Amino acid sequence: MKFSGWSNEDFDVFQVEGLEARMEALITHLRVKLTELGEELAPFLSEQTGEEMFPHVAKHARRKTNPPRDSWVAWSKNKRGYKMYPHFQIGAWETHAFIQFGIIYESPMKGLFAEQMIKHLDEIKQLIPASYLWYPDHMDPSGMVMAEMELVDFEKIAHRLANQKNGEVMIGVKIPRDEAVQMSEQAFLDRAKETFVTLLPLYRLAFSTTE
To answer: Is residue 68 situated within a structural domain?
Structure first.
């Protein structure tokens, strides 16, 4: 299944009021694109990581009242799910698309990654572009620009990862919706691949803690 490119309808689903109506719009428009991306990029990520990577499109099944404000496809080395593992993501809010690496609060590996993150922070700053964004909360789409972050900001992220149940971190880029809609299918795929390669050292760092 080939990615057919972004449209304004994909981002407009988050303007639809009500859980049931928004989910219907999301399934009709955005989920199709996320499924396409999941299938098309899985072989690339498998090649880059050296292990089979499986796509998981968000279902939002736990939601009973509040409609989702974003949606995504995640890739992990586990066929059954991604939340327990370091993973890659592509998704969208109403205002932008995002391409990220992350470890969320459900992963038992987050404390060990926190240690490695601080230990290798100088190396991370060399490898990850200063324009990339760090998100200590995946529900806050603003993020922090790495160039503007101080040591204390990284330490706070690491502390939350290691010590708080809801600790998590996502790192990557956002592409404004107007720009994403204007991009060709191949241009977005190329941007995604470039971003994943850039983030690959963080993925490997996460697994170096368990080997």
So the answer is: yes
Evaluate whether residue 2 is within a structural domain: no
Sheet containing 54-57: order of strands: 54-57, 70-76, 87-93, 96-103, 169-176, 133-135, 144-145
- 44: domain range? 8-208
- On average, the pLDDT of the chain sits at 94
Task: In whole angstroms, give the CA distance from residue 135 to residue 166.
Answer: 13
Where does residue 89 rank: exposed (0-12), middle (13-18), buried (19+ CB within 10 A)? buried
**pTM of the full structure:** 0.94
In a domain, 187, yes or no: yes
Q: Cα 175 to the chain's mean position, in Å? A: 13
Task: Kindly report, residue by residue over 133-180, the tens digit of the pLDDT.
Answer: 999 988 889 999 999 999 999 999 999 999 998 999 999 999 999 999
Q: Is 109 helix (H, G, I), strand (E, B) or coil?
A: coil
Count of the separate structural domains present in the chain: 1
> Does residue 55 fall inside a structural domain?
yes
